[in-house]
Amino acid sequence: MATYMTVRELYEGVYSKSLQDGMKVEIDGWVINNRFMGKMGFINFNDGTCFKNAQLVYDDSFADFEVSEKLRLGCSINIQGILHVTLDGRQPFEIHLTKLNLIGGVDDTYPLQKKKTSFEFLRTIPHLRPRTNTFRAVFRVRSVLSMAIHEFFQNEGFVYVHTPILTSNDCEGAGQTFQVVSDISHPEEYFGKRVTLTVSGQLHVEPFCEAFRDVYTFGPTFRAEKSNTSHHAAEFWMVEPEIAFADLYDDMDLIEDFLKYITKYVLANCPDEIDFFDQRIEPGLKEKLNNFVNKDFVEVEYTKAIDILLEAKKNGHKFNNDNIYWGLDLESEHERYLTEEVFKGPIFLTNYPKEIKAFYMKQNSDGKTVAAADLLVPEIGELVGASEREADLDKLTNRMKELGMDVSSYQWYLDLRRYGSCPHAGFGLGFERMMQYLTGMSNIRDVEAYPRTYKECDF
Amino acid sequence: MATYMTVRELYEGVYSKSLQDGMKVEIDGWVINNRFMGKMGFINFNDGTCFKNAQLVYDDSFADFEVSEKLRLGCSINIQGILHVTLDGRQPFEIHLTKLNLIGGVDDTYPLQKKKTSFEFLRTIPHLRPRTNTFRAVFRVRSVLSMAIHEFFQNEGFVYVHTPILTSNDCEGAGQTFQVVSDISHPEEYFGKRVTLTVSGQLHVEPFCEAFRDVYTFGPTFRAEKSNTSHHAAEFWMVEPEIAFADLYDDMDLIEDFLKYITKYVLANCPDEIDFFDQRIEPGLKEKLNNFVNKDFVEVEYTKAIDILLEAKKNGHKFNNDNIYWGLDLESEHERYLTEEVFKGPIFLTNYPKEIKAFYMKQNSDGKTVAAADLLVPEIGELVGASEREADLDKLTNRMKELGMDVSSYQWYLDLRRYGSCPHAGFGLGFERMMQYLTGMSNIRDVEAYPRTYKECDF
Asked: Per the CB < 8 Å rule, is A219 touching B219?
């Protein structure tokens, strides 16, 4: 009687020595590769439970030899065989086949063949690319990273809030939002008003921090930007925690703990996948991530950063945009100079001019800056945007009026400052940007299951 | 020096006896109630970390007496005080105040007052209702239930897939879908085609089970139904796992394990909240849930169920719809009769007529039925819909043609049957329906943070 197992259980059992050499096992899975050499055949086999393949071995005396010999990449099979533990070998075990059933074949139209296929081509077949090494690694990391996020917050006592996708309160102006209609000729019929897809859960999660103290939202958000770059998508996921009785420095501590926790979690739970990315996608990735979890994040005030950039310019450093002044919304080259050349690691840039930041940020006593912090990271640029929120009703209302906002439609949000207000702070992490940082995948389309971008929404 | 703590830490520390009677503590939070009787004042206090309140005590010799006496429900305060452990008392501890600072006041326009407010009224202030007992309980359960779902699947080795919200492949016909546009006068400009909000992640998650074996999606889904009932919402969350090399019976085992796990998890992690629902919302709830986790789910074939219903009718049971025949899509009263009168517990109704089920379900060899299973539960009706999927390319294609579907736009989905196909199965759980089952809250609007229904999308 064969024991039904998965490839993951085989690896775990062989390494922990809980499986007996010579035992009979049964597995279902897919053929990754099938080579016949001399009298011996070798099938690389994967059932999706583990990044690593299992090796199946057969010879020409095998009863199902004819089927085996013809197996193509991609076939699904059910096998039985004898486990041979080979801890000193190239792989820690092999299965010597005693039985093989073909479940689902493939013909020669199968788009995934042994030859290397480009990421561009694989984007045209998002339903098949998870079967390749790269995307099997990407999407397992995506799952593990999601779990890391939930574990961190739940362990810390945060309450997960499902902020709405549909909203009549659009936080950042109409230009970049998608509108939602049930009948195109009567766009406001269903809800009785204009409804859009959320661009951020922050405004909707803030009320919950005044009930539960520490909360987070983690879900899809949408921007209708018409840009076709490697880091913009129309649909992407955001992580947005909000903490009460907390200032910007509590927030920055939370960010550092959080990012280090989720990075360590992925390193610990996806070692094979990270090795793969380190070898095939971004050489040096593991070292980068190990530095990231071990290095202290440094705080640099915006004003100080401008001084540093002006000094660099004076000393002959060439910036494409060398019009550097207090008030400038820093560009990628400035951020990279600071993280890569000056501080050689992640920095929190803090206390930005209020003009270049959002209306809800706490106004500092200097009258010029707000209690905001962006986490800048070498190569990536901004990874996290954070701020303490303005908790004072009058200051917040005045700022909204200065900016010409329709204060009447934000009365519910202002209620938080009217009734039992408290200092609170939060941040936003673009989940896909974190995925790109952890995997080295340079295009956002390659870390999403079915990427949606300008002019692209197939399937 | 006072030790900064949360209410949860106080309860845990007092029960585990790790906190010293007489220690000095500091806490931030909100006033739930403030009574002054004779020379003593009592503040019920909550900081959101715990369903239970802490009791703060002061007398008229207290330095901040004047502030304390005037504190209204909803004020946020920072306090210091001495911990008095009273394990034999009505509550296990009190804090005798030594210092009190008002952080954020409230005026008499605050909509939450001591008098009982209706759920209908509270729906008009979704940003404030999480501060009430009922909604503090609901939204913590929602968070804990979400985590239970992730823990179950991740412990079982499932990969979490973020299936897309935006799709050009609308699974169940255009009538009940929302369309997404960036420019109402050029609705297809942004994506170059008609794009809608997903009604289910199933078709998009299936390809991942042919790569990772066991996968799940958990995210928002949308229906533009124009019905105004207590169990329909335009936006709601679905849990949809998909398992490869599995038939309907593997799927039913998974459903039973899963539902019992998440229910036990909520019972174990939200005991105070469940007690509250049992006492205030649905008397008998705890007994119902304990039965649910302890009782075996019974399988009843659809054909057998029809026989039972016909027999009941013959014996004089009155159904509003008594036109009972093989092929009938059972109505709620029929389902309730089966679960409440006949089997007195959850049942899997299996092998439905193919005419009343979806195109992708595996066709049984009788030519008439499909390998579907609905889990029916007393009072609620259908909790889960499950099926084995048709893995045979020809059978699936023929069924789609019979139903007049546009086969050409499903070629990617058919590829799963073309290349390395395998038996696979899955199910869908409406997350809000599970929330209603666990809390006894009878209206779906009361288990969503910001409910969106026909004609309702405020905030």
From this structure: yes
